[in-house]
Amino acid sequence: MEIVLTVMIIGITITALVSGLASVAGAGNAHRVGVESDTVLRNASEALKSAARECTAGASLRTDLVVPAGFVVAFSPDDTSCPDVRDSRRIEVSVVAPGGVRQAITVVVRTP
After folding, report:
1. What is the widest separation between alpha-carbon atoms in the chain?
2. Burial class of residue 52 in the structure, from the number of CB atoms within 10 Å of its CB (0-12 exposed, 13-18 middle, 19+ buried)
3. Which letter does DSSP use for residue 60 in this model?
4. Alpha helix locations (H) across 1-112?
5. C-beta contacts of 87-92 below 8 A and 24+ residues apart
6. 95: which residues sit within 8 A by CB, 6+ positions away?
7. What's the pTM value of the predicted model, to 2 decimals?
8. How many CB atoms lie within 10 A of CB 17?
9. How far is CA 4 from the centre of its chain?
10. pLDDT digits (tens, 9 = 90+) for 39-72
C-alpha cells in the first residue's frame, strides 16, 4: 500500500512539473513573437518618417522596408502621398504577427 501511494505522489509531482515547464515554454514563445512584432512595427514607422523627410508634396511615400517572413505590414490610409508643406498627415501603421496578433501605431508625417 505504501508503494502505491509513493508511486502516485511521484506521478502527480512529475505531471505538475512537466505542465509547468510547458506553460513557461508557451509564454516565452508568445513574448518572443510580441517583441518581434513590436520591432517590425517600430521599423516600419521609422521607415515611413524617413521617407517623409526625403519626399516632395504630392509624391508617393516609398519605404524600403524588409519585413521578416510571416509578418504583414499595412499602412492606412492606403493613399500614402506626401502632404503639403503646410500640412501633416496621420498614417496608421499596423503589423500582423504569424500568430495573428495585430499591433498598430499612428504616425504623424509632414514634408519638410
Report:
1. 86
2. buried
3. B
4. 2-53
5. 91/48, 91/61
6. 37, 40, 41, 44, 71, 72, 73, 74, 102, 103, 104
7. 0.72
8. 10
9. 50
10. 999 999 998 888 888 887 777 777 888 888 899 9
Proportion of the chain above pLDDT 70, given as a percent? 97
CB contact set of 57 (below 8 Å; sequence gap of 6+): 82, 83, 84, 85, 111
Sheet order of strands, 102-109 included: 72-76, 89-96, 102-109
Using alpha carbons only, give the angle 73, 85, 77 rounded to the nearest 5 degrees.
25
Q: What is the mean pLDDT of the chain?
A: 85
Residue 26 in this model has a pLDDT that exceeds 80: no
